[in-house]
């Protein structure tokens, strides 16, 4: 082995060890079994499989390219932390600067030209211009949506988010990349909120019958 | 949307929701920050990035194909549990039967031909015959090796595994797929065990000087 290969591998090992920290970045979404909140590493794994399984419902996307974007899209959170979708105090300008610095530092641990290549994948995701990036962003909305509908509302309940807000925050991103996925996702959202309403009416009824 | 597309998406959603359980399958390896043990979902994410970053050190492999094998390789653990490499009581025959049943059930949640396609990826990994599968298996040994050397021996210390046993259990699988990765990995192993020996000699010395 040349010295060059050895020093390359050492840099790659340092990068891969650094990534371990993404397993400790905690998101707002609960696991479906509600034992704890999801971390960004397992979330990224889940999303990569969403890409492999669901890409047939989007036009002009390459399933493995979408999966790759999703595998790297959250790595910047090692430095910048997770920015919850429903956080009213989030300042996207500040977040963007932090994430860009994080991307330079973390992907910069790799040897060239790999550092530049992985940085460009993260930039492709962020720029949201290619069909692959747009579909990756859609899946990044769809996955927590699915978890929320399976955990009595998850982050929606926790943040007092209405059905209208959910439709606004998830709809355009998902529907823009796949109409058929949005039809099914919207049905899950409506079913969730009609259950919530049903439960609230039942509560009101039982209070009234106690009066 | 045709009824057919709708029923396909519902099956795919059911499969993706089922996968959430892999986040609760706990492995023996500690995280590098030692706050807890690793789960199989985040382990699979980590491995997929190992594939993307390290494939240049193996001959005749396709990085994204290797990543895909690694994304699906542990899904069977949802039913069959994790089988630790250093468990002296593990019965590989029994494990194989359990994992095969698990693969049929879980991938069988998907619509065809996707169910058969994903099952075939898991079978390719298990059969360990293609260069992609052999490299995927090598990374599945390399990742815990790296974590162990960064956590004072991790699963080796926990299971009283000697340097010779480590060389035997990791060497052929990694070296068979990539000589240059094995050179660097073996150096990390030797450095770990020489530190352990150094610490034990220091202990013996201080006991002797107390006598
Ligand atoms: Ca494994």
TrEMBL record, chains A, B:
<keyword id="KW-0479">Metal-binding</keyword>
<dbReference type="InterPro" id="IPR039356">
    <property type="entry name" value="YfbR/HDDC2"/>
</dbReference>
<keyword id="KW-0378">Hydrolase</keyword>
<protein>
    <submittedName>
        <fullName>Putative hydrolase of HD superfamily</fullName>
    </submittedName>
</protein>
<dbReference type="GO" id="GO:0046872">
    <property type="term" value="F:metal ion binding"/>
</dbReference>
<dbReference type="Pfam" id="PF13023">
    <property type="entry name" value="HD_3"/>
</dbReference>
<dbReference type="GO" id="GO:0005737">
    <property type="term" value="C:cytoplasm"/>
</dbReference>
<dbReference type="InterPro" id="IPR006674">
    <property type="entry name" value="HD_domain"/>
</dbReference>
<dbReference type="GO" id="GO:0002953">
    <property type="term" value="F:5'-deoxynucleotidase activity"/>
</dbReference>
<feature type="domain" description="HD">
    <location>
        <begin position="19"/>
        <end position="182"/>
    </location>
</feature>
């Amino acid at each position: 082995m040349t010295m060059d290969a050895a020093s390359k591998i050492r840099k790659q090992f340092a990068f891969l060890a650094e990534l371990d920290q993404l397993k400790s970045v905690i998101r707002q979404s609960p696991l479906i079994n509600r034992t704890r909140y999801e971390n960004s590493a397992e979330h990224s794994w889940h999303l990569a499989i969403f890409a492999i399984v669901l890409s047939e419902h989007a036009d002009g996307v390459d399933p493995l390219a979408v999966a790759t974007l999703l595998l790297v899209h959250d790595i910047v959170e090692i430095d910048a932390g997770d920015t919850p979708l429903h956080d009213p105090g989030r300042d996207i300008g500040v977040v963007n600067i932090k994430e860009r610095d994080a991307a330079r530092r973390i992907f910069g641990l790799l040897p060239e030209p790999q550092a530049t290549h992985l940085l460009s994948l993260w930039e492709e995701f962020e720029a949201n211009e290619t069909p692959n990036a747009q579909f990756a962003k859609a899946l990044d909305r769809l996955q927590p949506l699915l978890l929320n509908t399976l955990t009595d509302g998850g982050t929606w309940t926790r943040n007092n988010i209405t059905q209208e807000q959910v439709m606004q925050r998830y709809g355009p991103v998902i529907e823009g990349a796949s109409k058929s996925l949005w039809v099914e996702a919207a049905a899950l959202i409506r079913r969730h909120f009609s259950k919530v309403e049903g439960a609230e009416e039942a509560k009101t009824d039982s209070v009234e019958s106690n009066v």
